[in-house]
Design brief:
Elements lengths: L1 H27 L8 E7 L2 E2 L4 E6 L7 E4 L5 E3 L12 E8 L1 E4 L8 H10 L11 E4 L14 E4 L4 E8 L3
C-alpha cells in the first residue's frame, strides 16, 4: 500500500502541474513577453477622447496591440483582453475615432466599427441609428499612411505622444 500511495501522490502532483501550466498558457495564448506602453493622442494639440489606437507590427511574428483613449486622450495598450502591453518590436500606428452620424461622409469598413465598439464596451450592433464614420483625418486610419512608426523597447514606453494634425 505504501508504494501505491506514493505513486498516487506523484500522479496527483504531475496532474496538478500539467493543469496549472495549461491554464497559464490559455490566458496568455501564444503571445510572447510584453512591455508596458502608455501615452496620449492629440489632434492639433487637443486630447482626443474615444480614439482607437492600434499598433500594427512591421515584421513577424506578428503580435499587435490596441487601446481606446480616455477623456484626456490617454491610453494603455494591451495585446489581448487578458494581456497588457505590447511585444517589443517595430510598429506602424493606426488611429481612428468612430462615431455614428447621419451625414455619411467618411465611411469606414464594418469590421473596424465593430472592433472599436467591442473595445469600448459598446454592445449596440453597428448599422443602427446612422452611419459609422471616422472623424479623424483619414490618413491616420491606415497604418501604412499614418506616418507614425514606433519601436517598443523591452522596457516599454511611457507617455508616448501621438500628435495628429488636421492639416
Amino acid at each position: 500500500m505504501g508504494r501505491r500511495f506514493i505513486v498516487a501522490i506523484m500522479l496527483w502532483f504531475v496532474s496538478g502541474l500539467v493543469i496549472s501550466q495549461g491554464c497559464g498558457s490559455r490566458t496568455r495564448g501564444n503571445i510572447p513577453q510584453t512591455a508596458p506602453v502608455s501615452g496620449i493622442v492629440t489632434l492639433d494639440g487637443q486630447p482626443v477622447d474615444g480614439a482607437t489606437v492600434v499598433f500594427v507590427p512591421t515584421g513577424t511574428p506578428a503580435y499587435g496591440a490596441y487601446a481606446v483613449t480616455d477623456s484626456k486622450g490617454r491610453f494603455v495598450l494591451k495585446s489581448s483582453e487578458t494581456v497588457s502591453g505590447a511585444v517589443p518590436g517595430k510598429y506602424f500606428v493606426q488611429v481612428t475615432k468612430l462615431v455614428t452620424d447621419t451625414t455619411g461622409k467618411q465611411y469606414v469598413v464594418a469590421e473596424d466599427a465593430e472592433h472599436a465598439a467591442l473595445a469600448s464596451g459598446d454592445t449596440t450592433p453597428t448599422g443602427t441609428g446612422g452611419i459609422t464614420r471616422n472623424v479623424l483625418p483619414e490618413k491616420y486610419a491606415n497604418p501604412k499612411t499614418s506616418g507614425i512608426e514606433v519601436t517598443v523597447p523591452p522596457e516599454g514606453l511611457q507617455d508616448f505622444e501621438i500628435k495628429l494634425s488636421s492639416q
